[in-house]
Structures are given as C-alpha cells and as structure tokens.
Amino acid sequence: MKRILCFLFTLLLLFAMALPFAALAEETIAGAAAFTLLFVQLFKVPLDKVWKIPTRAFAYIVSLAVMVAATAFTTGLTVQSALLAAVNALVSALMAYGSYEVTFAKLN
After folding, report:
1. Are 89 and 32 in contact (CB under 8 A)?
2. Nearest residue to 39 via CA among 60, 23, 24, 20
3. What is the pTM of this model?
4. CA-to-CA distance for 61 and 69, rounded, in angstroms?
C-alpha cells in the first residue's frame, strides 16, 4: 500500500511539474510527444506491477492528458478544442511510438 501511495504521489508531482511544459505542448506536438515518451518509459514498468495496461494505450492516455491540460491552460476547453486535443494527442502518441522504435530498435 505504501508503494502505491508513493507511486501516486510521484505521479502527481510529475504532472504538477509538467503543467508549464504542457502549455508549451499546445504550440508543438513534438514537445508533447517527447514528454509522453519520457513519462511512459519512466512509469511503464512500475505500472505493470499494479495494472496490466497496454503500453500504447497508456501512451495515448498520457498524451491526451498533456494536450487537454495544455488546451485548458492556454485557450480554454470547449467541445471543439477538446476534440482537436484528442486528435493532436493521437498524433503525439504516434510520434512517441515512432521515437521509441527509432531510438531503441535493434540494428540488424
């Protein structure tokens, strides 16, 4: 139980530190992709010990959280901006997948 609380506190702290970065992600989807890549790599293994969530779904959830937070803090959330943030989150998550494959793929 203590590990779960520590994990949740670390997660909350990381999101609090990422809010200024999230506002920057609205301007560049690449910033959101970089944050998603680092965040997923940092929390993938500890999260698998608690819940079995597919990595790509987790990456999309993180990317969606970043894009919605960026939209909320910069232009405000409306239905249209939330839908646009969801599409941008998909693009950002796909960029994070590709960045991982290029960076960590084994060379043949």
Report:
1. yes
2. 60
3. 0.71
4. 12
